[in-house]
Amino acid sequence: MKIFITSKGNSMDSMVDPRFGRAEYYIIYDTDTGEIISRENPHKQGRMAVGISFAQIAIEAGVNAAISGNFGPNAFEVLRAAGIKMYRARDDQTVEEAVNALLKGELEEFKEATPREIAEKLEKELK
Description:
Helix content: 25-40%
Number of helices: 4
Strand order of the largest sheet: 3-2-1-4-5-6
CATH architecture: 2-Layer Sandwich
Low-confidence stretches: none
Strand content: 15-25%
Number of strands: 6
Mean pLDDT: 91
CATH superfamily: Dinitrogenase iron-molybdenum cofactor biosynthesis domain
Number of domains: 1
Shape: globular
Order of helices and strands: EEEHEHEHEH
CATH class: Alpha Beta
Radius of gyration: 13 Å
């Protein structure tokens, strides 16, 4: 399984970034091979549709699941349409802890997007 995780840094020890589209980094972890890919989010400073653009990276990478603190409406719909399940990380989890929690079945699956007002408020607080 390939997992896409939003991150505040470029390692498995970094904290999960609660933002999806404007996360600082993303990490892709392959549970079958142990391969870890870490990249800076090229869309984090974008003006519009950053969630959609960022979701496209996950889709192109062939991930099966995504972990973040929130998924805005646009990103949620794009990921859902691609068959990617989305899971909520806790604010105090590292990327590694969130991955381990997912593998143990301990993360909550998003059934709907984070409301736009909450996503925008979070965005302003974390700038």
